[in-house]
Each structure stands twice: as C-alpha cells, then as structure tokens.
Design a protein that fits this description.
α2 links the parallel β1 (about 45-50) and β2. The chain is about 30% helix and about 25% strand. It is α/β, with parallel strands linked by helices. It has one domain (about 25-65, about 70-170): 3-Layer(aba) Sandwich (Rossmann fold), CATH 3.40.50. The longest helix is centred in the middle third of the chain and has 14 residues, at about 75-85. The protein has a seven-stranded mixed β-sheet with strand order 3-2-1-4-5-7-6, sandwiched between helices. It contains five helices and seven strands, in the order αβαβαβαβαβββ.
Amino acid sequence: MRIIAGEWKGRQIKAPKGRVVRPTSDRAREAWMSIVHPVLPGARVLDLFAGTGALGLEALSRGAAFVDFVEQSPMTVMALGENVATLGAGPRCEIHRGDALAWPARVVSRGVRYDVAFADPPYHKDLAVEIATCWLAGPFATIFGVEHEATTTLPEGGDVRRYGDTAITIYRTP
C-alpha cells in the first residue's frame, strides 16, 4: 500500500499481517480525497476505525494540519504507529486506542469538532449504519465519510459514491 499524492506521494505503508485489516483501495481512497480536497489544507481530521491509517495519512500528505486516529485492535495500533513513524508524521497526529463508536460522543461532549472525518468500519457488522446514525444525531465533523459495502444502505442525507463492491457515503453539515 502506498500514499497516493502530496508530501509523501509514493511512500509505502504497511498493514498488519493476517486478515485483521481491509485497507481502502487506492481507487476509492483517491476518489474520497478528491471529494474532501478543497477543505484539507489546514484541516483537523478524524480517522475512525483507522486500521493502517491510510486515510488519515493521505489527508496529512495533502495538507491536513492534524489527525486523530482511533483504532481498537492492539496489533493494528502497532502497525499504525510504525506507519506514522516511517513517514515522520508523529508531531501532526495522535493515535488513540479505543472504540471508534464511542469516540464521537466523547469529543462532542468536550466541544471538539473536526473539519473532516473518515470512518472505515469492518464490513458485515452494521457498524457503518451505527456510525452514520451517530453523526446524524450530533455532527462531529463538517464533512463525514463512511466506507461500506455497496449493498449496505446508510441513513438518508448522504451522497453515495460506488466503486465496485465498495461505497462511500459523504454527509455534510448545512
């Protein structure tokens, strides 16, 4: 896996061994970044279900000011930490080991709001629907994107883009 564009264009990042993580394809990641590109320079970004950190690291590479990564798996957090170190991104991000579904309530209660938030939850668990419902109940980012299976229907109000068997639904605050 590689960073597609920006400061770290072409640099490789690693996923943990095994089938623990399903990284976002280059095609879907490029499309996602094209959608949010106008607001990325100087943005505060949230990467939920961060996995390898590909989405947040891509955002940093393209000019985001800071990324909070939230990932629950200890093995995946280690791989994410290695990717951050490899790119020298440490001063511009923070890795939080915890429940990505619980994170938005924590930050909203403290008055924190992000410019852009990404969520790439595991498939087959209805977590995409849960996190989208959470955002609709209390938006924690101006632009919020959720990756999910193309056959999964998320709550209304988002713009759905399909890339093969993957879809990304983008929600925006008015």
